Amino acid sequence: MDERNPAMKALFSISFVTALVVLLGQSGSQIEARAQERYADLQNFTKVLNLVQQYYVEEVDTKKLIYGAIKGMLRELDPHTNFMPPDIFKDFESETSGEFGGLGIEISVQNGILTIISPIEDTPAWKAGIKAGDKVIAIDGKTTKGASLVEASQMMRGKRGSKVILKIVRDGEDKPRDIAIVRGSVKIRSVKYTDLSDGYAYVRITSFIENTAPDLQKVVAAHLAKNKKVEGLLIDLRRNPGGLLDQAVKVSDMFLKEGAIVSTIGRDKSNKEVSQATKRGKFTDFPLVILVDGYSASASEIVSGALQDNKRALIVGERTFGKGSVQSVVKLPDGSGLKLTVARYYTPKGVSIQAEGIKPDIVIDDVDPEAFSKAVIRSKGGRERDMVGHLQGDAEKKEAATGGKSDEEGLTAWWKDIGSKSDEALSPRDKLFKSDYQAYQAFSYLKAWHALKSLNK
Asked: Are residues 166 and 202 in the same domain?
């Protein structure tokens, strides 16, 4: 879901003005010719509908036919343009508020296959073990082949407390697996904070919904109030499928003193809208690292691109998803809705995100948690301090007096220590890094920021 925050009057105004400019640039004869052509096409549609209503072998549901025709028309466009019947549209509207009923997954159609972009954390799908990248080939025994996003959503709908079975194909596994999910109430907490001690903080943003920006501002402000000095902030946007454009702009604005955040260009290439930093950024003077992966999409990519192009943050992880299009949402008179792609996103440097994504400054590949938990630090060759009878160094004397350990010894001891403990016995920081290689490496780069910065002085 990646649409402009649906204050529809404003959207209609923009769309109307754009359309008016296009129309005024054409001659009267051109406009009339196009109108006649469109009228002729609609006559064909009306004729077919009338014939079906009068002569089809069985009674037909006219609304169902019209809805089907609209869906068929939109299939000729991009996969993010969709028509939603009233029941689906009602659920869609509630998703951006942060609380709704369902499974809690973001889905897309990739190469004709229904694919999980991300399970939303702490939702029924997430708890059932659904993972980003899972391909859904059947829902309750019915194939998803050829199904649109809306049709797939309808197949997964049901009463809270009822069960749905997704048959998924997962990379690295030979056979499909069935995963049963109990539909439930989905309440999204989009901002999650962990104090990493020593002035560092970790913030996970799971999606961009109505309250994401104010919630982020609260947790960062609280961290600032708790620490005399903030050494750095690690923001995790992995598996974040996106959300509301205005929230992405507000989040970016918090960390910028000035500069462009994102631009959008629609059909009329001369009509370019640019969102600028407001010069009211509250958090502009401490190191910032953004962690992304292949499932960081749309609004996540806007934030990453804005902070990267303005040289405010170091982007680490994997190349992002590459969804660089803007959708406007229109509520239709009967309660149904249209989500229509109306523009493309561009980073402050004018680079299109579409199908390309954001390339990280430093690539950190993901490592399987189980393999990571078994990793050990290789022992290195002997050093001077390992030789029998070596002349004791000043630092070594201090270590002997205080019982301290070298950095390497301390790291090894720390690693062995957290590896031997249950999650319940670990600190929030150690629990976070125990099985998350990317986050651990991202934190290492954040801690190195000050050392690298001092080299330029």
From this structure: no
